[in-house]
Amino acid sequence: MVEMLLVIGIIGVVTAMALVAWFNQMPMMRADSGMLLVETQIRRARESAVDSRSNYMVTFQGKAELVTCTSKLITGLPACPNTNGPTATPPQSEISDITVDPNQMTYTVLSGVPDTPDLFGNTTTCVASSGICFKDTVTSTSACGTTPALPCYITFQSDGTVVDSTGNYINGTIFMGQVGNAPNPTNPQTARAITILGTTGRIKGYRYNGKTWF
User: Fold this and answer.
1) Whole-number Å distance between alpha carbons of 44 and 30
2) Which range scores top for mean pLDDT: 64-73, 126-135, 162-171, 187-196?
3) What CATH code would you report for 2-207?
4) Quick one: which of 199, 141, 197 has its CA closest to 172?
5) Which tens digit of pLDDT belongs to each residue from 138-164?
6) Are the CB atoms for 43 and 68 separated by under 8 Å?
């Protein structure tokens, strides 16, 4: 009986430790899931632009919504809502719309979190609360993120590159994070970022461990 109680006690302690570790990791797991959802959609837009030889426009809007649409005409689908780059002829256009749970992840630069190693933009050039920062590589002006208001538009061309409304290559970063509240304060380790290199369309995801991006 004593041995059984001892075993049960050990199991209880191990289970409690596992639950604490699991709850501590949950915010980071949700952050990874939100970043992966957005990154996958952006990669799909780029691949679709190359495969279909048509422009795909990506719209960041709301707190955590992303809309992609193309100039390729598809009967019966609604018009592309974007104003950046060539638009489809109403009422035809292919559209995809996803929304990350805003209670878990939003477009934002969490306080104290630095720019990514790519240095495509942070609070030095963009407003932290917008979380979206794209800078024209020619004029060095921010096309997205200069105000907290969204939407923000970018365009993937048929060669996979990314341009702004004037056709100039544009580099940018999508910053995401979980904004906390009084009982659950903001955790910097939930900071995530997706960078896009305009001249090649290279897309790269970053995670923040509280000290550095990796």
Assistant:
1) 21
2) 187-196
3) 3.55.40.10
4) 197
5) 666 666 766 767 778 888 998 999 988
6) no
Q: Does residue 56 carry a pLDDT above 60?
A: yes
- H/E stretch holding 5: helix 2-52
Is residue 50 very low, low, confident or very high in pLDDT (cuts 50, 70, 90)?
Answer: very high
**147 alpha-carbon distance from chain centroid:** 18
Instruction: Extract the tokens encoding 209.
Output: 């461990």
Q: What is the DSSP letter of 151?
A: -
How much of the chain is helix, strand and coil, in % rounded to 5? 25, 25, 50
Between the alpha carbon of residue 7 and those of residues 15, 17, 18, 21, the distances in Å are 12, 15, 16, 21
| Integer Cα distance of 170 and 181 in angstroms | 35
Tokens describing residue 163: 């341009």
Amino acid type, 196: I
Provide CB contacts within 8 A for 89, sequence distance 6+: 73, 79
Please state the φ and ψ torsions of residue 162, each to the nearest 5 degrees: -120, 130
Pull the structure tokens for residue 20. Answer: 């604490």
Q: How far is CA 107 from the centre of its chain?
A: 7
The model's pTM:
0.81
